[in-house]
Amino acid sequence: MTTEHFVGAIDQGTTGTRFMMFDHGGQVIANAYETHEQIYPEPGWVEHDPNEIWRNTQSVMTDALSNAGLEAEQLAAIGVTNQRETTLLWDADTGQPIHNALVWQDRRTTDRVEELQEAGMAETIREKTGLEVDAYFSATKAEWILDNADPIKTQRARPADLRERAADGEIKFGTIDTWLIEKLTGNHITDVTNASRTMLYDIHEGDWDEELLDEFGIAREMLPEVRPSSDENHYGTTDPDDFLGAEVPVAGALGDQQAALFGQTCFDPGDAKNTYGTGSFFLMNTGEEAVESEHGLLTTVGFQRSGEPIQYALEGSIFITGAAIEWLVDVELIEDPAETESLARSVDSTDGVYLVPAFTGLGAPHWDGRARGTIVGMTRGTTKEHIVRATLESIAYQTRDVAEAMEADSGIEMSSLRVDGGAVKNNFLCQLQADSIGSEIVRPVVDETTALGSAYAAGLAVGYWETADELRDNWQVDREFAPEMASTEADRKYGRWQEAVERSLNWAQEE
């Protein structure tokens, strides 16, 4: 009897690590999850312990298999997806990080970003990488670690300077995908989507850029090899003598938002999705054309399959959406995120209250690292229900900010938007979103599309799935939300939102 095979996906996110296994129909057949510590050394600084992430990765992989009564030999392939710009450096000899990972949300390099802007580097960086100059991306994070981490004690007579060791190939750079791929296979590899988020990679040339490496003092010897997102040559295999106990190809990797694009089967130009997680990330496939944004969006790599051209995307990165709901829990306005729907429905409106969740600055299309969270319009009659509703509305309004920029840049009018992520279980939010952008919101049956996308990439690479059409056939609608609000009313509310955003900008100044 032939043993049934599945494809596994490591989904390493901002707050935790998940391992899922999918069958040929794209259905989840095993699942395990663990959170990791969020480390805040100073205001605006966010770190993760890479060793904790690796321990949790091993744990969720073995737990998922055990809980489902499956063997590692039943894995046809493993894909990796990850929180993207989060950056770490590690010792090539020992495999130990030289500092905690600096998380994508971390703002400690804002001053350096402003130096680059004042030096006129913003246009050069945008032309080469498709990115705005921002502390969000990896380049200034890696530079900071090289400048500030403790020197590593070596066999030399003195602790070696990190840059000196890096130039000698003794220090490795990576985003979290690279860290996990090396731990799994022993190979120092990233995929083209994650490379495109470093602010070091020329997305047109398809290579690390010497001018940018020089600007940030990053030695090429530190950098991983860049491979397709779905790689028929594989990134390597797991060691049968290691924790998994089997030799499994690791054959796909995508940054989490590109993975969701792939998992939502947005394979054609004009296809768009929005993922509602800690932040929200709105991507539209633009095909083989890297569309340059004139409205504050990022031009980025969508995905690449073996032997095929890079597929590009426009992206609107919204830093805080789900994290705004977490904030409501933190300040004890609610006990559980699930409460937000009933509380928001209990009032007819926000009563003029607008909340701008710029807790870590504003991303697309504003790109203001000094914006800060703002609540306007409160009166003595304002209740927690109004604030909860305003928080949900802020998610919808930020998405409209990006949708309008997307349509202006692409020239494509969106008729529907595929959505995924934890927050889309909230029907009230989905309806708000449809009303705000005036487009149909489509929620799929399998909403873990980030993990699914990386599984699809790995499965295609090993022939578990033969064609993209098989994946399209797997995609099924759970529910569609059509706009119900009059466009004039939606426009009026959105206009007030824009006024609230103006009040949040450029708030965090040095004392």
TrEMBL record:
EC assignment: 2.7.1.30
GO biological process: glycerol catabolic process; glycerol-3-phosphate metabolic process
Gene that encodes it: glpK
Similarity section: Belongs to the FGGY kinase family.
Any one cellular-component term (Gene Ontology): cytosol
Keywords of the record: ATP-binding, Glycerol metabolism, Kinase, Nucleotide-binding, Transferase
Coiled coil feature spans: none
The protein's name in its UniProt record: Glycerol kinase
Sequence positions that bind ADP: T14, R18, T278, G322, G422, N426
Domain Carbohydrate kinase FGGY N-terminal: 8-263
Annotated residues for binding of glycerol: R84, E85, Y136, D256, Q257
Residues the entry annotates as binding ATP: T14, T15, T278, G322, G422
